[in-house]
Amino acid sequence: DTDGNELAEHDGAFQYTIGQRKGLNIRVPAADGKPRYVTDVDTATGTVTVGPRDALRVSEITADRLKVLHPAMSEASANGEELAARVQIRAHGGVVPCTARVEGDQMTLTLHQPLEGVARGQAAVLYLPDPDGKGDIVLGSGTICATA
Fold first, then answer.
1. Are 24 and 41 within 8 A, CB to CB?
2. Reduced to 3 states, what is the DSSP secondary structure of residue 140?
3. What are the residue ranges in the chain where pLDDT is below 50?
4. Closest C-alpha to 66, from 146, 20, 123, 23
5. What does the buried/exposed string (b/e) look like for 40-70 if buried means 16 or more CB atoms within 10 Å of the residue's CB?
Protein backbone atom coordinates (compact mmCIF):
# COMPACT_ATOMS: atom_id res chain seq x y z
CA ASP A 1 0.00 0.00 0.00
CA THR A 2 1.04 3.66 0.00
CA ASP A 3 2.50 3.15 3.50
CA GLY A 4 4.84 0.40 2.24
CA ASN A 5 2.95 -2.57 3.72
CA GLU A 6 2.95 -5.75 1.64
CA LEU A 7 -0.66 -6.83 1.19
CA ALA A 8 -0.57 -9.63 -1.39
CA GLU A 9 1.43 -11.23 -4.19
CA HIS A 10 0.62 -11.10 -7.90
CA ASP A 11 1.62 -12.87 -11.10
CA GLY A 12 3.09 -9.83 -12.83
CA ALA A 13 2.93 -6.06 -12.51
CA PHE A 14 2.20 -5.80 -16.24
CA GLN A 15 -1.34 -7.02 -15.51
CA TYR A 16 -2.27 -3.85 -13.57
CA THR A 17 -3.09 -0.29 -14.59
CA ILE A 18 -3.25 2.98 -12.69
CA GLY A 19 -6.77 3.48 -11.33
CA GLN A 20 -7.67 -0.22 -11.42
CA ARG A 21 -9.92 -1.33 -8.58
CA LYS A 22 -11.22 -4.75 -9.58
CA GLY A 23 -9.17 -7.93 -9.49
CA LEU A 24 -6.66 -6.85 -6.86
CA ASN A 25 -7.35 -9.92 -4.67
CA ILE A 26 -6.42 -8.14 -1.46
CA ARG A 27 -7.86 -10.06 1.45
CA VAL A 28 -7.27 -7.40 4.13
CA PRO A 29 -9.70 -4.44 4.01
CA ALA A 30 -8.35 -0.89 4.14
CA ALA A 31 -8.31 0.66 7.61
CA ASP A 32 -10.98 3.17 6.56
CA GLY A 33 -13.08 0.47 4.85
CA LYS A 34 -12.99 2.29 1.50
CA PRO A 35 -11.96 0.66 -1.79
CA ARG A 36 -8.31 0.66 -2.85
CA TYR A 37 -7.03 1.53 -6.28
CA VAL A 38 -3.76 0.90 -8.10
CA THR A 39 -1.81 4.12 -7.61
CA ASP A 40 1.55 3.07 -9.08
CA VAL A 41 3.02 0.21 -11.10
CA ASP A 42 6.78 -0.36 -11.19
CA THR A 43 7.45 -3.17 -13.65
CA ALA A 44 11.21 -3.03 -12.97
CA THR A 45 10.70 -4.12 -9.35
CA GLY A 46 7.35 -5.85 -9.84
CA THR A 47 5.73 -3.56 -7.30
CA VAL A 48 2.06 -2.65 -7.57
CA THR A 49 1.07 0.04 -5.07
CA VAL A 50 -2.52 0.51 -3.94
CA GLY A 51 -4.15 3.33 -2.02
CA PRO A 52 -7.26 5.45 -1.65
CA ARG A 53 -8.90 7.18 -4.59
CA ASP A 54 -7.44 10.53 -3.47
CA ALA A 55 -3.94 9.11 -4.12
CA LEU A 56 -4.81 8.95 -7.84
CA ARG A 57 -4.97 12.75 -8.11
CA VAL A 58 -2.08 14.32 -9.96
CA SER A 59 -1.33 18.04 -10.08
CA GLU A 60 2.10 17.96 -11.73
CA ILE A 61 3.37 15.92 -14.67
CA THR A 62 6.91 15.54 -15.96
CA ALA A 63 7.33 14.33 -19.52
CA ASP A 64 10.36 13.50 -21.64
CA ARG A 65 10.91 12.33 -25.23
CA LEU A 66 9.43 15.62 -26.39
CA LYS A 67 8.03 16.25 -29.83
CA VAL A 68 8.01 20.00 -30.45
CA LEU A 69 5.51 20.81 -33.20
CA HIS A 70 4.95 24.56 -32.87
CA PRO A 71 7.33 27.54 -32.56
CA ALA A 72 5.58 28.77 -29.38
CA MET A 73 6.83 25.68 -27.53
CA SER A 74 10.42 25.98 -28.78
CA GLU A 75 10.47 29.75 -28.08
CA ALA A 76 9.29 29.21 -24.49
CA SER A 77 12.02 26.61 -24.06
CA ALA A 78 14.75 28.82 -25.53
CA ASN A 79 13.73 31.79 -23.37
CA GLY A 80 13.20 29.78 -20.16
CA GLU A 81 9.60 30.98 -20.01
CA GLU A 82 6.46 29.30 -18.79
CA LEU A 83 3.72 28.71 -21.31
CA ALA A 84 0.00 28.85 -20.56
CA ALA A 85 -1.54 25.95 -22.44
CA ARG A 86 -3.95 23.05 -22.16
CA VAL A 87 -3.00 19.39 -21.84
CA GLN A 88 -4.77 16.18 -22.79
CA ILE A 89 -3.66 12.80 -21.46
CA ARG A 90 -6.04 10.28 -23.00
CA ALA A 91 -7.31 10.27 -26.57
CA HIS A 92 -10.86 10.84 -25.32
CA GLY A 93 -9.94 12.51 -22.03
CA GLY A 94 -10.75 16.06 -21.12
CA VAL A 95 -8.43 18.95 -21.83
CA VAL A 96 -7.11 20.63 -18.67
CA PRO A 97 -5.50 24.09 -18.41
CA CYS A 98 -1.87 23.99 -17.32
CA THR A 99 1.36 25.91 -17.11
CA ALA A 100 4.18 24.28 -19.07
CA ARG A 101 7.88 24.73 -18.52
CA VAL A 102 10.20 23.16 -21.09
CA GLU A 103 13.82 22.63 -20.07
CA GLY A 104 16.06 20.66 -22.38
CA ASP A 105 14.37 17.40 -23.30
CA GLN A 106 11.81 17.52 -20.47
CA MET A 107 8.69 19.50 -19.72
CA THR A 108 6.95 20.04 -16.41
CA LEU A 109 3.22 20.64 -16.49
CA THR A 110 1.52 22.23 -13.51
CA LEU A 111 -2.15 21.38 -13.82
CA HIS A 112 -4.74 24.00 -12.85
CA GLN A 113 -7.05 21.19 -11.76
CA PRO A 114 -5.96 17.67 -10.78
CA LEU A 115 -6.37 14.66 -13.03
CA GLU A 116 -6.86 11.04 -11.93
CA GLY A 117 -5.36 7.90 -13.37
CA VAL A 118 -2.31 9.45 -15.02
CA ALA A 119 0.42 6.86 -15.60
CA ARG A 120 4.05 6.82 -16.68
CA GLY A 121 4.27 5.95 -20.37
CA GLN A 122 1.13 7.84 -21.40
CA ALA A 123 1.39 10.78 -23.78
CA ALA A 124 0.78 14.36 -22.66
CA VAL A 125 -0.27 16.55 -25.60
CA LEU A 126 -0.13 20.35 -25.28
CA TYR A 127 -2.67 22.59 -27.04
CA LEU A 128 -3.41 26.26 -27.50
CA PRO A 129 -6.79 27.55 -28.64
CA ASP A 130 -6.68 28.67 -32.29
CA PRO A 131 -7.08 32.47 -32.33
CA ASP A 132 -9.26 32.10 -35.45
CA GLY A 133 -11.63 29.84 -33.55
CA LYS A 134 -11.07 26.90 -35.90
CA GLY A 135 -10.04 24.42 -33.19
CA ASP A 136 -6.86 23.86 -31.27
CA ILE A 137 -3.21 24.24 -32.19
CA VAL A 138 -1.02 21.31 -31.14
CA LEU A 139 2.18 22.64 -29.58
CA GLY A 140 3.83 19.30 -28.98
CA SER A 141 3.82 16.23 -26.79
CA GLY A 142 5.91 14.16 -24.44
CA THR A 143 5.89 10.80 -22.71
CA ILE A 144 4.97 10.98 -19.02
CA CYS A 145 7.91 9.87 -16.87
CA ALA A 146 6.79 11.15 -13.43
CA THR A 147 3.78 12.56 -11.60
CA ALA A 148 3.18 14.34 -8.31
1. no
2. strand
3. none
4. 123
5. bbeeeeeebbbbbeebbebeebbbeebebee
